[in-house]
Amino acid sequence: MTTRVMSVSSETTLLDAGKKLAANKFNGLPVVDVNNVLVGIVTEYDIIAHISGRTGTHNNALTVGEIMTKNPYTLSQDATFEEALTLFRDHQTANPVPVIDNDRRVVGVVSRTDLLKGFE
Questions:
Q1: CA 63 to CA 12: how far, in whole Å?
Q2: Model pTM greater than 0.85?
């Protein structure tokens, strides 16, 4: 799990979110409110699908909040390695997965790559 989480707000433009994803080589970013409470996730797929015309007209002024997945898969902060493996196995499109506390505040992110590190 990565605990130094980079996130965006629902007001972040798609252009800025895409730049952040590309610059950091991330697959997705948690979308949080001002209290760091998870409100969604935006992935590179979401942005690519949108700008390719699959889900609408390309518009640089669009925000993450307009295209994000509003109820993303999550793991609790006390989830086991096996629970994480099961989530990724059963939901192959989930990547990354936010890790949240009891108040839905983001405390980390788990990716497929993180799980593979368990085999080192």
A1: 5
A2: yes
Q: Which CATH number fits domain 14-117: 3.40.190.10, 3.10.580.10, 3.40.50.2300, 3.40.50.150?
A: 3.10.580.10
SS3 per-residue string spanning the chain: CECCCCCECCCCEHHHHHHHHHHHCCCEEEEECCCCEEEEEEEHHHHHHHHCCCCCCCCCCCEHHHHCECCCCCEECCCCHHHHHHHHHHCCCCCCEEEECCCCEEEEEECHHHHHHCCC
The single-letter code of the amino acid at 19 is: K
pLDDT, one tens digit per residue, over 15-47 is 899 999 999 999 999 999 999 999 999 999 988
